[in-house]
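Box 3.1 A note on notation
Throughout this textbook, protein chains are presented in two layers. The first layer is the amino acid sequence; the second is a token string describing backbone geometry. Keep the layers aligned when reading.
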Amino acid sequence: MPDVSFVNLFAVVLIALLAPLLLGLAPRMRIPAVVLEIVAGIVFGPAGLGWIRVDLPVQIVALLGLAFLLFLAGLEIDLHGLRGRLLGYALLGYVATLVLGTVAGVSFRVAGWVQSPLLIAVALSATSLGLVVPLLKDAGRTDSEVGQTTIAASSVADFGAVVLLSLLFSTSGGSTGGRVVLLVAFTVLVAVAALVVVLASRSMRLGDVLLRLQDTTAQIRVRAAVVLLVGFVALAEKLGLEAILGAFMAGAVVGLVDRDSATHPHFRTKLEAIGYGFLIPVFFVASGLRLDLQGLIESPSALLRVPLFLVALLVVRGVPALLYRRSLGTRSSLAAGLLQATSLPFLVTAAQIGVTVELMRPVTAAALVCAGLLSVLLFPVGALALLRGHGEVPPTQAGTRPSGMGEAM
């Protein structure tokens, strides 16, 4: 057996177990588990006590966790619901987000914090769709106008951010023009694969086999989803694109095909069990282990970046929600803006890529991630308060902690 130690991985998965358990034992602590996991990684990692480090086993599982995180985020996208006025609002809002994000990026570039204003614009443009959807579900507002508008805008934002990050800042290098050609080729191959999967799903004989094997030890639907995930990730890497794009598109394809919840109601639960039960928490704890918090604390000027990034996130993602004011009203539009400005996993991913391609220093990446942590802690609470004050949140559900507050994209 190779000379590999699993001690650090054991410590990481132990943190992943204790974080939600602690929150379950203390329900008054309305802190998302993902925040606790990253903070624990900071405390016990090189920036803190130095007890845990990112070695090969942790690195591999964390990479799988990132892929599964993006896969589940793509799975949340309702391609059938993105149409008409909702799609128009979402696209217009995302264009406004990129404009505001570029202005913020130029300001941070002038301050010497980043090398690329576009990197900041893309990093700030995403929304934690995996957090927003469960939160709206628990609030009983998924099917309301504010809920559908927010979900549509968040879906477009997540998709656009993943594509732009892969297109403009791929760690594999190459020219942007070349990556555009590769992206088109990748899109065509994904469309072909999706068509094949859709046609295969309509086969009665194959459908009977899948139905018979889906809840046995074969877990055939889960295995098929994993094959699609790994295949798309490998294809994206082969074409010189970011693996996160392949993972995200795999989730979107599975979500497009998986519409019959009556015959396989536990399919998504099984996928979430793999992701949120094992892989994704390792990614977040490892992100905390890598965070350069010491450099952030030692420099007051660097520490100042955290609230400024938080304000930038609120402006870049929150202000475009004012486009919904005519249809939703002022109060609901503000709530939608706060939900849209809730972002963490994509900020972690973008920060890591920024450091890798040397467009962002580790201390700036740490400030960006800390701003994301604060957005997850503060913005959903403010949004629910606005909806509750407007009579949008049922009183029996308003005080509950969203089930999606664990790990979310």
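Confidence is low (pLDDT under 50) at residues 392-406. The chain is about 75% helix and 0% strand.
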